[in-house]
Amino acid sequence: MFISLLSLMIFADRPVDPHSFANTQEVVHDHLDLKFKLDFEAKVIHGTATLRLVYAKPTQQLVLDTRDLIIDRVFEPVSGENLSFELGPEQAYLGRALKIDLGGKQPQQVAISYHSQPQAAALQWLAPSQTTSKKLPFLFTQSQAILARTWIPCMDSPGVRVTFNASVDAPKGIRVIMGAKHTQEDMGKGHFEFAMPYSIPPYLIALAAGELEFKAMSKRTGVYAEPAVVEKAAWEFADAEKMIEATESIYGPYDWERWDILVLPPSFPFGGMENPMLTFATPTVIAGDRSLVSLLAHELAHSWSGNLVTNATWNDFWLNEGTTTYTEARIMEVLLGPDFANMHRALGQQDLRETVQDMSKSPDDTHLFLNLKDRDPDDGMTDIAYEKGANFLTVLEHHFGREKWDAFLKNYFRSNAFSTITTEAFLKQLKEGLFKDHPEDWQKLKVEDWVFGPGIPDNLVQTSNPLGKATDEALAALKAGKAPAELETKGWITQQWLDFIRNLPEMDNGQMKALDDAFNFSKSGNSEILFAWVMRAIPADYQAAYPAMEHFLTHMGRRKFLKPIYQELMKHERTQALAKSIYAKARDGYHPISVTSLDPVLDFKP
Ligand code: BES
Ligand code: ZN
What we know:
By secondary structure, the chain is α+β, with helices and mostly antiparallel strands. It contains 19 helices and 21 strands. It has 3 domains: about 1-210, Immunoglobulin-like (Sandwich), CATH 2.60.40.1730; about 310-450, Neutral Protease, domain 2 (Orthogonal Bundle), CATH 1.10.390; about 480-600, Alpha Horseshoe (Serine Threonine Protein Phosphatase 5, Tetratricopeptide repeat), CATH 1.25.40.320. The longest helix is centred in the middle third of the chain and has 21 residues, at about 340-360. Ligand BES binds near residues 145, 270, 381, 386 and 560.
């Protein structure tokens, strides 16, 4: 077999991915042709996936990832000849290997007809009653980390990249969008076509369908949302174009042509998801005053860190999220200035300290580079990857200075574009780039402690934080006995309120009431403020906040809010029954991803 230069490049140094069954050392797919038919009644996607293959060596088998997929037929699409296949044993969260017998040939393409099951973890099917206008059903996908395999049989590993075409049929009146170029849209016929010409890992393949309107914000940015939400969203996200320009000024051109933002129904389990060309976002980011849009800066930053240069395996997740969290603050610094950015960074450091403390019993999980073999990659989604990762990069930035550091990063994104990066390769590039003339700095900056060691090394950078100083002063005055209404809080931004609430001393009921009377926290329409407040209300047994808490828990499904609240409720005997009764009511409306995390918290046996 002739092995091309291209395939040598594709296979060079590919690390073993502990979360994929695929035989990527022998063969990979580099293009997918996808056909989907959406059946909302049955909650099933009927699909055909045609995989274009590139071989490293002759191989008998093609091994793919599947989970909860029913395989109807496997065939060679040119001859139409059937290929025999078998499904391996079911493994927790990994699913089943699909082993396709290539019949001694090296077919250029293999096609799989299949359908998904209603419980597919990547899919949430919403009834019309769960949408804002209640007219049409809604479907959205969430493939990261290893859920693409629940709706597409593929090599579901971040180290394997594909371009794709997709053609989608849906019931009339429903609009289908994907994180890709929209090449054909016929709402009348219910037919849609898409093309993704840039090579992406399967975890970034994304689709949504429902009653969706579009509003343009700039030439290359716009918002998709349910009709009742689209105007509010377009106002809230008006700085999208400025965010792209800010990032381009540091890292070079945006490679994905468009950046649209889809606002999902409230059950979306995450804050945001960086699907290429089309960020998916929670409606809880819409505060009415643009105060939470750093979340969009985060998802945009993934267009470089993650989507352009991708973590090779989920053990290297910190390279996606740490670099992105670092960049998020840089973007906000350009948009809103250093005081805002430093307040934002300080909140991140508080999260980091708290997480390290909470994880004191499993210090290995506080390393940046993880070993998630035999564990769900979801276990790695902690503030360690995000905040310890970002703080490590901040150490490098401060030591080398922005000019050198930015040049390094810009070159890093360019030279690794559309490929993957391991922790080892990242460190090598650092060593041979930034540290080349100063190898002794490697030890001095404790690089290996940051990456391979527990906790927070003592050279964490603390920047001056004037906005945080104001909240510290208010907290000190409160502790000294000043009445809440007398505190100097005029002109505070959301992040200062968060700092204030999180760092309140232990409060009794009366003190909580005085704060609530002065600042109306229980009535806050800002999801982050309400969340922070509820997290204080539960230990203080401040019951006046419980109706608002119950409404919050039953009207949105963002796991980052749900899980800590339910955990806090379950921690105290007096609120356990309340937690269980709210969960019993709300569970049906939550996404499978949230349900999987919450069932154990609430001792819920399905
Ligand atoms: N890519 C992540 C979301 C994710 C990570 C989904 C791992 C599944 C597995 C996304 O970019 C993200 O980090 N979202 C955050 C928001 C951000 C502002 C920290 C979230 O959803 O909370
Ligand atoms: Zn992220």
